[in-house]
Each structure stands twice: as structure tokens, then as C-alpha cells.
Amino acid sequence: MSGTGDDEEEPRRRRRSGPVTKGGDARASKQLRTRVKTARGRKHSSQLWLNRQLNDPYVAKARQEGYRSRAAYKLTELDDKFGLIRPGMRVADLGAAPGGWAQVALKRGASHVAGVDLLEMAPIPGAILLQMDFTDPDAPAALKRALGGPADLVLSDLAPWTTGHKATDHLRIVALVEAAAYFAMDVLKPGGGFVAKVFQGGASQDVLDALKSRFEKVRHYKPPASRSESAETFLIAQGFRG
Ligand SMILES: C[S@@+](CC[C@H](N)C(=O)[O-])C[C@H]1O[C@@H](n2cnc3c(N)ncnc32)[C@H](O)[C@@H]1O
Fold first, then answer.
1. Residue 75 pLDDT grade (very low, low, confident, very high; cuts 50, 70, 90)
2. Degrees to nearest 5, angle at CA 84 with 109 and 117
């Protein structure tokens, strides 16, 4: 494995769980425009990632506002633009760790979040967080039990581990988007919404066609918090027809 499909984050160094403490806030702002001095033993890519993290205003903001990931701002911006989250919603969160999206969904009024990730997550009040592989045949049923009823919104920020072998990685990305889309079409109530991270060429035409026939609107959008050098963008499907 050489990394995740999410080139926004450096996988081996990122902290996966645990609330961000206030003690980290002052440190974070002081670290703005910091250069990494002790590069010895670090791979060039890791050093670049660390430099970027230390100088990223979204990383500092996440620490200040108590979000577990800078990814929280991607959902915030998507919600501001598309009006996805409403009070009382039941939300599925696929690829949830460390929990930034779940925090945003709950803060914006969701009454219940059911999340799944390969990685362990620290608890979040109001969320049921499952540590399992979403592609495991048992995962959809486990998530449905955790949801406790039809979902209003299915969110997928799933980013598969990549091998460095382009064709294999592409297949993995397409497979995850497809699994997330079919799960959404299985659990959503009429009127519901689906948001998925996709990478360039990441959703197959078949999936797009299925989404377009089952949702009133299907759009793509790259929020400002998504780094311009990242190949990711987001697919937003609204108005599930049932
Ligand atoms: C970009 S991160 C999600 C960040 C999260 N939305 C947040 O705001 O904190 C992508 C996540 O997808 C998870 N993931 C990748 N493949 C998975 C799979 N097959 N099943 C479950 N989780 C998976 C990774 O472990 C990783 O934590």
C-alpha cells in the first residue's frame, strides 16, 4: 500500500481519532507558515505533506473549532451550497474516520448519525460508529441496524488505500463509489440526498445513469476546502425518487 486515494491527507502520519484539544489551538496558530526543519529520515512526500499541514488554514481552523479533520469544512461548504442537512435527519456516514463529517452533521441538526470506517474512531455523542469494511457483505445490514430506519442523507467520503498501480487503484475507487451509491439507493427515503467523494474518472457511467434516473438532480462540485491539487471532487444527488 502506498497511500489512500485521498491525496488530501498523508495516511501514515495522520491522527485518526480523538477530539482535538484546546491546547492544540495556540500551537496550531503559531505553526502557521512554519517550515519543517527536521527532515532527516522523512520521505520527501511526507515532508511536503507536513509542510502543507502546518501552513493550511483549514487545519488550524479545525483545531480551533474542535473538528477532528479539515475534511469537516468540505461538508460544511457542500451543505452551505446545496442545503443538505436539516434538523432531525438520519444520516449515514461512509468512511467516517476520524469523524469530522459526523461532527458537522450533528452540529447542523442531524438527530442520528451511523458511521462506518476501517479505522477505529473515538465516540461521538449522537453517532453510532462501526469499525468495519464497508465492502464486507455484512456492512450494509449492520449500517441499516445502526441507522434504525430509512436515511435522509447518505454521505460518502470513502477514500480507498491505493497500490500505486493505476488500473487497480481506479477499479478500487470506482467500486467504492458504486457500493456507496447502491447502498444510498437502498436506504434513502423519498426526497433523500446522497453525497460522494469521487476522483477523476471515479464514477462509472452506469452508476451515474442509475443516479440520474433515481434522483431529481445530480451535480458535481469541488468545494473550496478541497485542495486544488487534489483530484477529488464531490457528486451531489438530491431528491431521491424512491
Ligand atoms: C478522507 S477519510 C474520511 C474523513 C472523514 N469524512 C472526516 O471528516 O473525518 C476517508 C476514510 O475512508 C476510509 N475507508 C476507505 N476504504 C474503506 C472501506 N472499504 N470501508 C470503510 N472505510 C473505508 C478510510 O479508512 C478513511 O478513514
1. very high
2. 80
